[in-house]
Task: inverse folding
């Protein structure tokens, strides 16, 4: 690791779900307070803030988010707004690595239930307008990608059935994980039959229980340079690798529609920065906006062979032990319940993913703490913006 | 709220499915691109315009949309997928249209891999006061009601002294409602008088085999333009790219105008089109006349609802010129009187009707007189005429007027298409004429007499030429096909009203 690795010295989040009585500022306030307490810092220590949200301009008529955060915290430090939490984190890492700041707040929030009637239309802003004009929905591209996958790998009869079951098992598994997560939106077990029944009811390849919900929530973390971090914590959870890549907004125009090239590139670059192999990663928070996307992420990040992830999932879930068994190695995936069961308040989602990996690496995950055969060293978080239009990979490590 | 500049740009590209092709490496794009991503700056000025509107595509993958986003809700459930053109060089998002999905199981692999035809339709629902959004990212299967037909420009063989019809196209939707005496065409929910006009114009170009840039004027007659102010003709001109195109300013060198005179809005312009292509000063090789209507009628329970047993939906386009004529215009006679037999006041959704006074002093008087005057002028007897076609608001009126004029069944039955499609208002007698042209032999005489309430009639005598037969092969989507195709779908009255009102 040749670069300076920024250190996550504190982290906090809200419960995800519907926060009917609370403004988005109140949610970020809660997350920030928890993060600052866990970091042992105060507002005056902050030198900058990176804040993420997608839709506050639309859902809550909040335009210059920075101003709201400034007013809330009564701070006048530099602040920048991004869409995803991963993007905010990457910007914060860049600034610390450039030596510009030593302590930075990274926060994300979303208030999707405030515009319940129109939120699916708003989500189409993350797709290209031509797909919208042709009648695309937030779910449709996931289903088309699944159809492409089935056709490309010529999956039929028994294998097709296994793919469908494997995708259902992802949802079942993530819900089971969520039962141990006090912040999760849906901390309840579901059955495979329910997932399959929802697909049948909708006459669709993916059903209601294959998709992440609409959520409110916030997450925050305090990022520090290593020299400052040592005054606040002895347990260093650092951002060892941070990488991102982009792809065409127009899904139909992409060459390969069975994977996200941006995810593949981001992962390769992140691994290069840390100088490790994907096999060194023991825990991963994958962006399961749909069950399909968790499966695709296993392939894009190089854990499973392309066209084979469904087998790894299917075999691992027949007698699920809390992790996927891929090529003889254990991989813990979405131990917080994933987007499916933990919730998906877009701008905060990445924060919850980071939160989970930090907690696991610190050994502070309570009754959902993973038990690995080898000491937990590296975890990764992948987040997408849009349908694979942007991909971020963060590799977190203990050092 | 919609944005007018966005509508302009989206429809400019989306209605025609405009694309770009790199002439250096052959890479293709949907939408306009100034350079090729592979060839870089050397491809500036080397990108050719392409259009996928006339092409056959392939539905590669699809899914079922049960819960659309808000503006698409009126479409109900639909199939959405990716359509590729040119063996996968280009892929576009697309919605399957003309499909009422029932409760049965859906097997997506039955849809995938099939050839599709792009269709020009309304995009989604907007406020009544807003610009109507359109797009051609909608498709139907090529092996169903609407086949794919190549648009091929054919070098003309012969120039005629008398101008006439060089090509025509009829467009009637796939949906029908059954009535005791007839069947009526019902638009799909994303169709209207504008979309039908474009379809008919496109089919006429395919039939005529002429270069669309040679059209100097397009007239669109309608009484159901969804706009009170804004022509259908300008949409037709742009989608069909009529006249030379100025690509910098995105202008078509064509005159486009809408006309209105109840059901004779289109036939009235036949003579103008004929005269125009004959004018030597500014050469205008071709003129297009379209009659199109999503014929309006109040629901049966309301005043004016008696029309709701007869109205149809459809469009008919004719291209006039002097080269490779299939039917020469021998002569015409028009009559007009100020007879208030049928009208629709501004801001009223449905027309009103003068009951029994629409018969004798209106329809019958005008048609009979116009036919007699023209026959007199040309020195013709009923025996000189092979086919008689008149305006057809129902089955009874045109049959009675034909008999009264002395025509026999074999002279008027072929042109009586109201039994198949209902009263298509401005498209009614033109569709009758098209049905006759579909069957007529060379050197046959056709007498066409339209009628428009308000009131007036245009009588035309046409004589078919030897070229009528060879051009017929180019049009698979002829009147008989549209009347009898096995893929026609029947709907009940409730569905019909819903589809008729549109998005």
Result:
């Amino acid at each position: 690791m040749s670069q300076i690795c920024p250190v996550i010295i504190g982290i906090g989040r809200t419960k995800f779900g519907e926060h009917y009585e609370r403004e988005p500022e109140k949610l970020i306030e809660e997350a920030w307070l928890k993060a600052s307490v866990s970091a042992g810092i105060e507002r005056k220590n902050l030198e900058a803030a990176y804040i993420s949200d997608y839709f506050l301009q639309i859902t809550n008529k909040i335009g210059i988010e920075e101003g709201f955060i400034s007013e809330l915290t009564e701070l006048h430090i530099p602040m920048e707004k991004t869409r995803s939490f991963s993007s905010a984190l990457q910007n914060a890492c860049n600034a610390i690595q450039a030596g510009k700041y030593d302590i930075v707040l990274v926060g994300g929030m979303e208030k999707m239930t405030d515009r319940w009637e129109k939120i699916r239309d708003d989500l189409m802003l993350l797709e290209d307008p031509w797909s919208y004009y042709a009648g695309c929905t937030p779910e449709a591209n996931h289903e088309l990608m699944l159809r492409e996958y089935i056709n490309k790998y010529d999956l039929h009869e028994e294998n097709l059935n296994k793919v469908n079951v494997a995708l259902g098992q992802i949802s079942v598994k993530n819900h089971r994980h969520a039962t141990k997560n006090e912040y999760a939106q849906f901390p309840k077990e579901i059955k495979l039959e329910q997932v399959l029944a929802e697909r049948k009811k909708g006459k669709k390849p993916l059903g209601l229980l294959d998709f992440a919900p609409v959520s409110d929530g916030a997450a925050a973390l305090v990022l520090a340079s290593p020299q400052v971090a040592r005054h606040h914590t002895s347990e260093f959870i650092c951002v060892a690798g941070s990488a991102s890549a982009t792809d065409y907004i127009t899904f139909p125009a992409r060459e390969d529609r069975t994977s996200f090239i941006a995810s593949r590139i981001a992962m390769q670059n992140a691994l290069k920065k840390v100088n490790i192999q994907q096999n060194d990663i023991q825990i991963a928070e994958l962006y399961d906006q749909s069950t399909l996307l968790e499966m695709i992420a296993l392939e894009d990040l190089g854990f499973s062979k392309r066209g084979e992830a469904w087998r790894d999932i299917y075999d691992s879930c027949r007698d699920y032990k809390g992790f996927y068994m891929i090529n003889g190695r254990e991989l813990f995936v979405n131990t917080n319940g994933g987007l499916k069961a933990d919730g998906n308040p877009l701008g905060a989602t990445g924060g919850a993913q980071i939160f989970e990996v930090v907690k696991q690496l610190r050994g502070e995950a309570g009754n959902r703490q993973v038990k690995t055969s080898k000491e937990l060293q590296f975890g990764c978080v992948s987040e997408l913006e849009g349908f694979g239009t942007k991909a971020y990979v963060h590799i977190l490590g203990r050092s | 709220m919609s944005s007018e500049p966005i509508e302009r740009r989206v429809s400019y590209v989306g209605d025609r499915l405009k694309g770009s092709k790199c002439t250096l490496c052959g890479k293709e794009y949907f939408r306009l691109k100034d350079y090729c991503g592979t060839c870089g700056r050397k491809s500036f000025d080397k990108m050719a315009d392409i259009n996928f509107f006339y092409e056959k595509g392939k539905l590669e993958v699809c899914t079922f949309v049960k819960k659309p986003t808000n503006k698409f809700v009126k479409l109900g459930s639909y199939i959405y997928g990716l359509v590729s053109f040119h063996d996968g060089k280009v892929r576009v998002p697309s919605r399957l249209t003309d499909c009422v999905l029932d409760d049965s199981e859906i097997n997506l692999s039955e849809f995938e891999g099939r050839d599709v035809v792009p269709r020009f339709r309304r995009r989604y629902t907007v406020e009544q006061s807003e610009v109507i959004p359109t797009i051609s990212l909608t498709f139907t299967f090529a092996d169903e009601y609407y086949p794919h037909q190549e648009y091929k420009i054919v070098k003309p063989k012969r120039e005629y002294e008398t101008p006439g019809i060089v090509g025509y196209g009829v467009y009637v939707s796939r949906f029908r409602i059954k009535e005791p005496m007839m069947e009526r065409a019902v638009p799909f929910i994303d169709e209207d008088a504008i979309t039908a006009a474009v379809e008919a114009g496109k089919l006429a170009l395919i039939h005529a085999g002429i270069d669309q840039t040679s059209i100097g004027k397009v007239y669109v007659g309608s009484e159901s333009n969804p706009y009170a102010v804004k022509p259908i003709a300008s949409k037709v001109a742009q989608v069909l790219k009529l006249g030379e195109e100025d690509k910098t300013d995105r202008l078509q060198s064509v005159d486009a105008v809408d006309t209105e005179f109840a059901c004779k809005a289109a036939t009235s312009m036949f003579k103008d089109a004929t005269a125009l292509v004959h004018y030597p000063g500014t050469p205008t090789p071709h003129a297009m006349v379209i009659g199109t209507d999503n014929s309006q009628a109040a629901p049966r329970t309301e005043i004016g609802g008696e029309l709701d047993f007869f109205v149809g939906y459809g469009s008919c386009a004719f291209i006039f010129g002097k080269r490779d004529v299939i039917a020469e215009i021998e002569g015409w006679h028009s009559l007009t009187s100020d007879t208030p037999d049928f009208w629709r006041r501004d801001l009223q959704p449905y027309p009103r009707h003068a009951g029994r006074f629409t018969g004798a002093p209106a329809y019958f008087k005008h048609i009979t007189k116009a036919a007699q005057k023209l026959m007199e002028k040309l020195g013709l007897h009923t025996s000189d005429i092979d086919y008689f076609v008149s305006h057809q608001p129902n089955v009874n009126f045109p049959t009675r007027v034909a008999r009264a004029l002395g025509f026999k069944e074999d002279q008027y039955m072929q042109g009586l298409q109201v039994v198949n499609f209902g009263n298509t208002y401005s498209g009614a007698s033109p569709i009758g004429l098209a049905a006759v042209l579909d069957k007529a032999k060379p050197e046959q005489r056709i007498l066409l007499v339209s009628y428009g309430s308000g009131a007036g009639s245009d009588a035309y005598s046409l004589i078919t030429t030897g070229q009528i037969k060879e051009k017929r092969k180019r049009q698979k989507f002829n009147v008989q096909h549209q009347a009898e195709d096995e893929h026609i779908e029947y709907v009940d009255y409730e569905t019909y009203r819903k589809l008729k009102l549109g998005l």
Notes: Chain B has a mean pLDDT of 96. Residues 159-501 of chain B form a domain with the Peroxisomal Thiolase; Chain A, domain 1 fold (CATH 3.40.47.10).
